[in-house]
Each structure stands twice: as structure tokens, then as C-alpha cells.
Specification:
It contains one helix and nine strands, in the order βββββαββββ. A hairpin with a 4-residue loop joins β3 and β4. By secondary structure, it is mainly β. The strands form three sheets. Strands 1, 2, 5 and 9 form a four-stranded mixed beta sheet that branches.
Length: 124
């Protein structure tokens, strides 16, 4: 069971079950799978990036993570707490069916990238 300080993270790409980076969530319970309509994914090739844009529903998995796991995810996603705009990803909390969850938001350019406004990302 989760401890004090645990938080929720919604993942949409290589951290999902069956994908290459899922091992970073080892020991973190999956609480739900759902659709988020407040984000749109962009296909960056080896992984996706989300933007805060309306969609028809992007598939996410929601996990309860410890503070240590959240720090590891921040490093993986190049999230820089002191200057979020300087990293590859920032993060925001969005409402989900199981509570507020952190979602990593892509900071890079999305020109000419394929948008995924419905469903999920899968490695090609």
C-alpha cells in the first residue's frame, strides 16, 4: 500500500505497461486506465509528447508512486523543477477519475509532428 507523500502520475508513452520504460514504475500500483481529454499526444518517433490541448480522449495509465519514484521519473523525462521550461518536459496536475495526477507535458517544438487526439501511442 502507498505511504505518506505518495502521489499519482498519469503515463501515456514508454512508461505504460508493456513498453520499454515501464520498469521505472516497478512496485508502483496501477490504479486505473482512462481517457484524458485535456491533452493531445505528438509522435516524436521513439516516444510521444503531450501538450495541453483538447482531444477526443488519450489513453493513460495512472500509478501511485513514491516521492523517490517521482524523482526518478523527473530525471527520465528531463523535468527540471527549478526551471521547468528548460527541460524536455514540464509537468502539470490534471483531474482523473482517481484524483489529481501529474502528467508530463512536452516543451519542444511540435511542427509537422503527427498529432494523436484519440486513442494511444504505440512504438512503430
Amino acid at each position: 500500500m502507498g505511504g505518506a507523500g505518495d502521489t499519482l502520475v498519469a503515463v501515456y508513452g514508454t512508461l505504460k505497461q508493456g513498453e520499454g520504460n515501464h520498469r521505472w514504475l516497478a512496485g508502483s500500483p496501477r490504479l486505473a486506465r482512462c481517457l484524458l481529454r485535456g491533452i493531445t499526444l505528438y509522435d516524436l518517433g521513439p516516444y510521444p509528447g503531450a501538450r495541453l490541448e483538447p482531444s477526443e480522449g488519450v489513453e493513460v495509465e495512472i500509478y501511485r508512486v513514491s516521492p523517490e519514484t517521482l524523482q526518478q521519473l523527473d530525471r527520465l523525462e528531463d523535468y527540471r523543477p527549478a526551471n521547468p521550461a528548460a527541460g524536455e518536459y514540464g509537468r502539470v496536475q490534471l483531474e482523473t477519475p482517481v484524483g489529481l495526477a501529474w502528467v508530463y507535458i512536452y516543451n519542444g517544438a511540435i511542427n509537422d509532428l503527427r498529432a494523436i487526439r484519440r486513442g494511444g501511442w504505440r512504438r512503430a
